[in-house]
Amino acid sequence: MDLKSKVILVTGANRGIGAELVRSFLKHDVEKVYATARNISSLPNFNDSRVVPLKLDITSKEDVAAAVNLVVQLDILVNNAGVMTYSNVITSSIEQLTEDMDVNYYGTLRVSQAFTPLIEKRGGGAIVNLNSIVSYAPPLAITGYSASKAALFSATQAQRAILKTKNIEVIGVYPGPIDTDLAKDLPLDKASVIDTAENIVNGIIEGKEDIYPDPTSSQLAQLWGSNPKALENFFANM
Ligand SMILES: NC(=O)c1ccc[n+]([C@@H]2O[C@H](COP(=O)([O-])OP(=O)(O)OC[C@H]3O[C@@H](n4cnc5c(N)ncnc54)[C@H](OP(=O)(O)O)[C@@H]3O)[C@@H](O)[C@H]2O)c1
Asked: For residue range 69-115, what is the model confidence (pLDDT) as tens digits?
């Protein structure tokens, strides 16, 4: 997809991958980037007049409705906002498990449902969902989070099939461990957030449907592609 003159919205743009995605998009000839955050005072200064700060808690119906009214035109929606709890599908309470689902699954779907008509009105565009390599199989420390990302993976495939006729590309991004606050307590080697964001934006430009933006995710996606059970066993033994 050519980014020239595109209007883009990024959720969770105040830190981590979201903030770097905004910076990466700004290197291209885009028209406008809505940098959204739960609390707009937490947004960095992107030093670019094409950036429009916007309040958007993806779990809030009111915030989503207000954002849709303000945005009016949109080509690319980037569903980046997410949380990761260390919950366990056997021992954690349903209330604990709900946190990942509310943000990563229902929150993301709420935003997609609300903004899709705007993208449709432009004659097409793209929805980019930040899934995870753990969408494909669960590491034991984060089984509640993995389940929410597996649900989002399924919704990504469904959105792609449903929106094909509307000229809306639906792109899944499946990172491995990236050096952000979200992954700070994971004792793993992590990829640079700047490289990750660059690779995601380049993947969008190249028209990829599935983006593996770091070396670990590329390697694990190959394993999953050749033998899904092997990835399940790899994560089960981590
Ligand atoms: N880092 C990794 O290793 C990794 C790997 C695979 C996938 N991912 C995915 O990549 C995405 C970005 O993760 P990250 O690593 O950049 O995480 P991060 O540094 O923890 O940032 C998470 C972002 O999501 C926002 N957010 C959380 N709940 C929200 C809500 N209800 N409404 C709006 N924004 C909300 C946060 O805002 P606040 O500052 O207000 O909390 C923050 O901007 C997530 O979907 C994550 O699951 C990350």
From this structure: 999 899 999 999 999 999 999 999 999 999 999 999 999 999 999 99
Q: Look at residues 144, 132, 141, 153 and name the one whose alpha carbon lies nearest to residue 196.
A: 132
Please report whether residue 2 resides in a domain.
no
Residue 124 covered by a domain: yes
What ranges in the chain are assigned the alpha helix state H?
16-26, 61-71, 94-100, 108-121, 143-163, 193-205, 215-226, 228-236
Name residues contacting ligand 1 (CB within 6 A). 11-12, 14-18, 37-39, 42, 57-59, 80-84, 103, 107, 130, 132, 175, 177-178, 180-183
pLDDT one-digit tens code per residue, 153-168 = 999 999 999 999 999 9
For residue 222, the domain's CATH number is 3.40.50.720
Q: Which domain holds residue 59?
A: 7-236
